[in-house]
Each structure stands twice: as C-alpha cells, then as structure tokens.
Amino acid sequence: MVQPSGASSWNGWGDPARRPGLSEHVREFLDQRFHGLLVPPPPPVALEEVRLAPSALSAEVRQRIAAIATVSEEREARVAHARGKSYRDLVRIRSGDASGAPDSVVSVTRPSQVEELLALCTEERLAVVPFGGGTSVVGGVEPLRGEFAALIALDLTGMDRLVNLDIVSHTATLQPGLRGPQAEALLAARGYTLGHFPQSYELATIGGYAATRSAGQASTGYGRSDELVVGLTVATPSGTLQLGRAPRSAAGPDLRQLMLGSEGAFGVITDVTMAVRPTPPHKRYEGWFFPSFSSGLEALRRLEQHKLAPEVSRLSDEDETVGNLALSGHGGGLSGAYLKARRVKAMAIFGWEGEQELVSARRKLGLKIVRAAGGVSVGTSAGQAWESGRFAAPYLRDDLLDAGVLVETLETAASWAKLPQVRDGVREAVTSALGASSGVLIGCHVSHLYPAGASLYFTVLAPAALRDPLGQWDAAKRAATDAIVASGATITHHHAVGADHMPWLAAEIGELGVDVLRAVKQRLDPAGILNPGKLLP
Amino acid sequence: MVQPSGASSWNGWGDPARRPGLSEHVREFLDQRFHGLLVPPPPPVALEEVRLAPSALSAEVRQRIAAIATVSEEREARVAHARGKSYRDLVRIRSGDASGAPDSVVSVTRPSQVEELLALCTEERLAVVPFGGGTSVVGGVEPLRGEFAALIALDLTGMDRLVNLDIVSHTATLQPGLRGPQAEALLAARGYTLGHFPQSYELATIGGYAATRSAGQASTGYGRSDELVVGLTVATPSGTLQLGRAPRSAAGPDLRQLMLGSEGAFGVITDVTMAVRPTPPHKRYEGWFFPSFSSGLEALRRLEQHKLAPEVSRLSDEDETVGNLALSGHGGGLSGAYLKARRVKAMAIFGWEGEQELVSARRKLGLKIVRAAGGVSVGTSAGQAWESGRFAAPYLRDDLLDAGVLVETLETAASWAKLPQVRDGVREAVTSALGASSGVLIGCHVSHLYPAGASLYFTVLAPAALRDPLGQWDAAKRAATDAIVASGATITHHHAVGADHMPWLAAEIGELGVDVLRAVKQRLDPAGILNPGKLLP
Question: S-S: B10 plus which of B25, B80, B107, B408, CB 3.0-4.6 Å?
C-alpha cells in the first residue's frame, strides 16, 4: 500500500502495518452483538483502480505555481489529498471514489510561499484547500470546487519547524505542518510538552489543531488547543494577520478567537504560538469503575467544579464499557466476577500529571469525591493499558470496516444540567435511524470537563448496509445532529464544522451569526477561493 | 451633591460621603515628594453651573422614544451620563465642561425595549451610547455624536435581574444593568459568587464587564470576566445574537469572543450567562515582602506556571510599595525597621480562597516557591487591610484632585519574558513626559497572572498642571502607550479601547484586523449609530 509523505495510508489510518487485525474474541463479540448480520464488503480497490479525472490545471498555471512551490500531480498524492478520515471518506475511497480530487498538490515550506500562492490563486480563481494531517472527520478537506475550474490542495506538512521556544514565558512558536509527534519530539528535547493528544495525534498537525479547535485526551488538565494559543499568524488573500501581543487583552474583540476554528476558510495559519509546560515529572494513570454512568458523571462534575479533576478525566457509559472491554480483550478479566460483585458498570480513566507533591495532594482530595460517588479502583494497569492503546482506535476501525461494520463517532458538549438528556436524545435518534434490531451499539463517554459542562463522545457500531452505506450513516448522523440541536447542545465540541455540520451552523449561531462570519470571509477572501463549501453555508 | 440613580456622584466617585479626606501624614508625604509644587485647582463647579446645551431631540422623536422607554432630560441625568471616570473625565466635569452631553437619558428594563429603541434610532439616525456603571476610564461612554444630529445615553441599570441560576452547571444568567454588589448579593443569597471584583466593582455593571473584558482583583484564581462568560445575548440593529450552547465548542470561530470587548459598538448586551462558584468557605489574605520587584515577579511567575498561584496575586514594585504604605498610613509601621532589617522592598498580597483542605495544600506548596524567592511574611493583617480597602482608591483620587495632584492609572499585559522591559519603557516615557523634576511617582503592580505572562498596572501621581491639566496627562499617556506598543505589549489588559486607545488599535491588531472589525460593524450596525467614535478608528 502506498504511503504518501510517509504519513498515512491513502485509504485508511496511518501505517497499515500497525493494524491489529480482529482477534477471535472480537469476532465472537461482533457476531453475538450483530446476530450474524455482518457481511464483509468488497475489498478496497488498489490505488491504480481509483477513478481519477485528469488534472484540470493548464500547463501555464501549473508553471506559475511551480515557480513558487513544489507541485505534484502524481496519482498517489492527488488521491491521498482527496479525502479526510471520516467513515464517509473511507467508504468512498475504498470503493475507488476520489471524485473531485485536487488537480494538484502544492507543498510549501515557508510563509512567503503561502502568501504568494494565495495571491496567484485569487488572480487565477483557483480553489485552495489547506491540508495538514488530513484527519478531518467532518469533510473539512473535501475538495469542493463549486464554481471554480480547478482546485489545489495546499500541503503544509513541509512547514515543520519549531520557530521559537520561550522558556521564561513557557510558550512555543510552531509552524503549522508539524504533526503531533514531531512537535512533541522537538519540545521534549528541550524539556517541554504541549500536552495535546487528540486521537488523531499521530497524523494531525499544529495548524489543524488551531483551524478546528481540537481537544486532546488530556485537555481537561492542559486546556484545549484553542485555549493554549496565545498568538498566531494567518496569511489571507487580503494580507497577513499577526495576532496576540499578550496572553490576554481588552483591546476590543479577540480576533485570535475569530481565526481559531476558521477551518481554512478565512486564511492559512502560518504559525501558532502556544503555551507549553515542562514535561510532567510524575504521571499516574488509573482505572476506576462506578455503579452507573450517572454516578460517575456526578463524580466528574464535582471533581471539575472543585478544581480537582485529573488531567485526563474520562468516563464511559455502561454500553461503551462493555464494548471497550470486549474489543480490548479484557472482557474475561475485568467484566467478570470482580465488577459484578462490586456492582459497578461504568469505567473511568483518571490520568494525573505534574509534580509529585501537587499530584498527590490533588489526588488525595479528588479521590474522596470519587469514592463518595461509589467509585471502585481497578488499579494502574487499566490506566496504563488505556494510555498505551490510546491512539489505536483508528487502526482498529480499518479492520472493522473490512469485516462489514459501520463504525463512526460523533460528539457534542453541553451544560452539566443538560448532559443526561442530550445523551438520551442522541442514543434514541441513532438507534431509531439505524434500526434497533440490527444490534447497533452506541457507546458514549465524557472526556473534556469544564466547570459549566462537558463533552459527550459517541461511538456507533452497526452492521454496514452493503448497498448504501453512506445513506445509512447520513441518516443516523442527521438524526443525531437534529437531536443535539433540539436538546440545546453544540453541534460539535472538537470536530469542527467542515461540510458535514454546515447545514446546522445557523441553528448553532443564528442566521445573523452566519452573516457575521460571511462578512469576515468577504473581507479576507473576497474571491472565495479558500476551502469553499466548508464552514459557511 | 446630586446622586443620579443613587449610584455615583456626577463629578467624582460613588457616594461622596465615603471620601476619606487627606490625612496629615498623606499631606506630608505629598509635600515631601512634590517639593511643595502642589497648587489646589479651583473647586469643582456646582451642578447648576455646568455648561449644558439644550437637548437637540425634537418633541416628536422624544415622544416616539417615550412610547418605548423612560426618557429623562433632567440636568442631573444628562450631566451624569456625559462622562466616564478617567482623569480627563473628572478634570473636565469638575470645571463644568459637559460638552456633548447626551440629549436624553433613556432607561430600559426589558430586552424588547432595547430592540425597539435600536430600530427607532437607526430609522431616526440617533447615536446611542450604551451606559451601565459609567466607569470607563478610556472614554468608552464619551458622547461623541460625530455626524449625528442627536445622541442618547441608553441607561441599562434598570435591567437588574438574576434571570436564572443553574446550580448543577454553576452558571448564572444575569441582566446587564446589575452592578457588582447587586449581582453578588443576589448570588450570595443562593450560596454563590462570581468572584469578580474589579476596582470599579461598586458601580460597574455585568454588561460593562462583558463589553470591556474587565478583570477583577481575584481574576488570577476565578478567571477574567470574559473567561467566565459561557453565553450572551446581544441586541443589534440587524437583529439579536444568542450565543453559547456549550462551555466550549468547535463550531467555527467563537462569536462570543467577537462580542466580548465590542464596547457597545456592535450591539447592546441584554444578558450574560457566567460561571459562578460556591461562596468560598475559606479565605486567607496575607501580606508578603520580597527583596525586590524582580525577585517577587519571579515568584509570581513560578507560582502561576506551577498552578499554585493564589486567587489574588498582587505584587507592587518598590515605588508603589513606598507610595502605598505612605498613603495608607502604614508608613511608620511596615516601612520602618522591620522591612529594612529584612532588606525587603516590594510588597505582595496573596489571597487564597476555596475549601480549606485544598487551600492548605496549595498554600503549603506555593509558599515554598515564595520563600525560595526571598519572600518574608508580614502576616494576615496586611492582607486584611488590603482587602477591606480594596475599593477605596477611586474615593481617595477625588481628594487628591482637590489637592492639585494629577492621579491616573494605565495598564498593559505582556509575556513574562517581556515584562521587565515593558515596565522600564513605560516608566521612562511617563517620567520624561511629565518631567522628572516634578517628583512624579510611578507605582507599578502585577495583578493578573497567566502561564504565559501577566498584566502591569501603573499609577501615576504628579503635581497637576494648573493651566493645561488635560494636555499634561495626554502627553504622558501618549508617551506611555507608544512605549507599550514599542515593547510588544498589548495597549490594554482590562480597560478596553474606548476613544482614548483607538489611535493605537491598528498597532495592536494591524490595519487588516481593524478592517475585519469594521466589516462586522457594518453588518450589525450599518447606520453606525452604536457608540460612535469608540473602538474603531
């Protein structure tokens, strides 16, 4: 299988050699759950069989671009930049559908190249899709050319430098193309960490974090990516914005927060200055079980509102706990007599990080709350197992797709008071859309805590519809998002809007709010070349 | 003296009965410091002598407004809404200059009235200055009518309800006209607090907090006002924005952060949902001294970067310490033999708040850092004295003005690495502008900590120039702001832009950034009626 830029399989996640394969007990679990309804789809097509239109770029324009940056029209590059990593994306690309693939993949290493390219593309009316890790699961890198005759993917992974590390202020200025592990390695060499570990960590980039407001698995403790940003530079067709002269300011509206989450539709982020922390000298990851999701939720709320939440604070509901134990092979051990005897059903992972003394003091106080809510420790091995497997799920997904499983995630956030009804609403909507008789499994976990509320993250497993897998999932996603909107929650906590959530943006911020964003877009990108068809309806 | 809306003196701060008067030791200190250069100005004019043009509103328009809300054209109301509370404002109003005073003061109690008024004022082309506590020190409520024939002050203090308290999510929805103490009283009755205590607390309002991104004395622990906001409603001439469906979202740019700090130029905030906390069961305020400002600064930085900073973390430099001790009457006690023997010169206030156990644990770890930096405790009485006098400075200012003292403050924020040079730059600029020979006293303190940086707050005392006090201060302010910009700091950390900082906004966010804000303004307030001449050049 081809590995463009040495980063990710064009039709799956990361390095295919790391796919775990489905073990016997996983197969058994799936069979029991889905009543033998799983039918493996045709195997993914080979790269050569992917349907790909010839590049629409004229030789002249290609030459003008090549005078600025590196242009590739290789099949593998174009296909790898045609899709993100959602279920929709994988189903399509595995079947050989790369329709709309970028006409060229243009790679840059310097901010000045980005500025020159934006000027050229505005002049030539070429659509531009800024492309970092390409891990969007909401159609954020979908090559929608709309009225434009041609479209380029602007690959930023060549902008991969640590520009500056300020060890007094604990900030790092990072280029947008740095992938998670690259950024961490550069910082670790100096004794620092971003502490930002989204599930897409191995592939996702700094620019993508900022453009989509990503949250990481330790964001409860370290802050979301958007909370870590103290400054950023954004190249737009109308000029370059340099924002952030202090951690906080009262100099009018915070334009940083207008650029964060702008998903490449306002400009291309060319550097980001983020808060970093010294590598934590002490880490303690541990597993806990609660009698129920709701008792665990209460514990998490109290921990956060008492400023005692661990850096990593995750709680799976009863169904996700069952699924996780089965899929991870721990079904026999943890889900057996031990848990039953203690009448606990919802698993939590708590990860404490920092200086030993402070961690000890916080943990001691925090565990009083945990125990008062009925929490039962299952020790550090469960925590370590979670930590070591924390980036593995996307690999497993590829194997599940091979086996005929629909597997996708969706997420939201709401106030603590609303969370239970939001969860119920989404579960009912998805179950009803997919059909309860299919054995659909909807796991849910809470993983990002704020004093006023938290996120809910759903994982959906069901037998994939052979004939129309996209229609099947689209119906479920529509129903889920409608339920989210109806219950007063946000349409996305950390996956961004992209093309997939766009129809609900007006429900989120009102038609007037959308108009405000349009006015900003019009000022910064009057020709509308930047990531068309995303964010703004 | 007249007290419009029972809230504040029209020509000074708050309730004039609470002015402390200048004690003998303060007079001695001023005399020594300013070499007998102080010349008391003419006493403030009486309300009846204030120069006030007749209202420019036609009877017909006045009637249309009165059909929606309460209209007052009383002298005391118009004069009280003519100025904020900066040195410029006080000097002018004390001399009887209320030029440009609003033609009418229009008071509302309901959001629907605001919506109707904005429609009417757009139709009639009337400028509107949203007015809460009127405590702006940057010309934020200056009645600049520009091309408009008439201008109204939209008084929001009648919108003073606690709309909702969510005790699960720890959020309160508050109307914009609630003053600090009113909001705290409503919350305290239910066991909660905002924990937001700007120096303007006694007069300032919730809407003003949000419109200007205010920071409070305990914001290091509780968060700035803008960080506490989880949702808000903004009435604009183009419709109403309702923002905030979750504490955090990735649904595109954060429009809340575009409305926070919009200073009444984009719309009128009609409610704000903010994070609240249970009233802290334990408080410990204490005084510490450091050998120097720079050793204290190092301690504060380490405390914050280790997540151990007290809720209130303030550090005065050597000059401010001397001034504070003298003005508070503690000159004899603390500044004497005790401090000299210990070779400490820079005073800090640390205020720990929360549950006893957590406070104890954090304090114990934090004080290791404090002591390692040479910190010496002067006990809780110094802390309590600071706490009980924390809102008194604006009263003292009125007395100092009577005595012929120029007294004004200014503030900024920057990264920790830049703070020392920012402070030096501002001190030099102000000293040079005011003339070193005048004995000018420039005190500086740090009072808002972030992992990446902190604020610097300067208090300037000098003999007022009798002939041109405004020109004297304007020159110093210009020099200070130029120095701030040159050193890479923000033009304001928590005083907003208003009219006074407007010339430097482009230096802060670039011409393109200003253009983006203009595009937003144009979309929301196409007639430009909202707070003209503020924020946007």
Answer: B80
**SS3 for B479?**
helix
Angle at A119 between CA A116 and CA A120, to 5 degrees: 85
* A221 lies within 8 A of chain B by CB: no
Name the residue with tokens 């740095």: A178
Distance of CA B114 to the CA centre of its chain: 25
Cβ atoms A490, A497 nearer than 8 A:
no
Please give the full DSSP string across B8-59, using - where no structure is assigned: --TTSSS-GGG-----HHHHHHHHHHTTT---PPPPPPPGGGSB-PPP---H
The H-assigned helical ranges of B189-309 are: 206-212, 219-222, 225-228, 256-259, 293-305
In the predicted structure, residue A4 carries a pLDDT above the cut 60:
no
Q: How far does the CA of residue A303 sit from the closest CA of chain B (Å)?
A: 12
* DSSP-based three-state secondary structure for A232: strand
Q: What is the per-residue pLDDT for B6? A: 44
| pLDDT at residue B120 in the model | 98
Helix (H, G, I), strand (E, B) or coil at A278: strand
Instruction: Give A276's contacts (C-beta < 8 A, 6+ positions apart).
Output: A165, A170, A171, A172, A187, A192, A193, A194, A195
- Among B249, B253, B492, whose Cβ lies nearest the Cβ of A249? B492
- Give backbone dihedrals phi and psi of A357, rounded to 5 degrees, phi first: -65, -45
Residue A49 pLDDT level (bands cut at 50, 70, 90): very high
Q: Does B107 touch chain A (CB under 8 A)?
A: no
Q: A322 near A288, Cβ under 8 Å? A: no
Mean pLDDT, rounded, for A214-240: 97
Which residues of chain B are within 8 Å of residue A234 when distances are taken between CB atoms? Answer: none
B523 lies within 8 A of chain A by CB: yes
Can you tell me the ipTM of this complex? 0.96
* Cross-chain CB nearest to B505 (options A251, A490, A509): A251
A6-20, A34-48, A374-388, B303-317: least confident range: A6-20
Under a CB-based contact definition with an 8 Å cutoff, are residues B490 and B412 in contact?
A: yes
Q: Are A451 and B247 in contact (CB under 8 A)?
A: yes
pLDDT tens track for B368-398: 999 999 999 999 999 998 998 899 899 999 9
Contacts of B282 in chain A (CB under 8 A): none
pTM: 0.97
Phi, psi angles (nearest 5°) of residue A453: 175, -165
> With contacts defined as CB-CB under 8 Å, which chain A residues touch B226?
248, 254
- At residue A338, does pLDDT exceed 90? no
CB pair distance less than 8 Å for A508 and B277: no
State the nearest Cα–Cα gap between A292 and chain B, in angstroms: 18
What average pLDDT does chain A have? 95
pLDDT for the residue numbered A335: 55
A184-198, A379-393, B148-162, B347-361: lowest mean pLDDT where?
A: A379-393
Spans of chain B, pLDDT less than 50 = 1-6, 332
- Residue A330 pLDDT exceeds 70: no
Q: Could you please report the per-residue DSSP string of B97-114?
A: B-TT--SEEEE-SSHHHH
Q: Can you tell me the distance from the alpha carbon of B181 to that of B195, in angstroms, rounded to the nearest whole number? A: 11
CB contact under 8 A, B226 and A254: yes
Residues 411 through 430 of chain B touching chain A, CB cutoff 8 Å: 412-418
Measured between CB atoms, which of A361, A492, A510 is closest to B250? A492
* B269-to-A176, A250, B226, B233, B420 alpha-carbon distances in Å: 36, 17, 13, 6, 37
Could you list the beta-strand ranges (E) of B298-385: 312-316, 346-354, 376-379
Task: Mutation target for B interface from A167, A357, A415, A485: give the one with most B CBs within 10 A.
Answer: A415
pLDDT at A3: 37
Residues B212 and B140 sit within 8 Å (Cβ to Cβ): yes
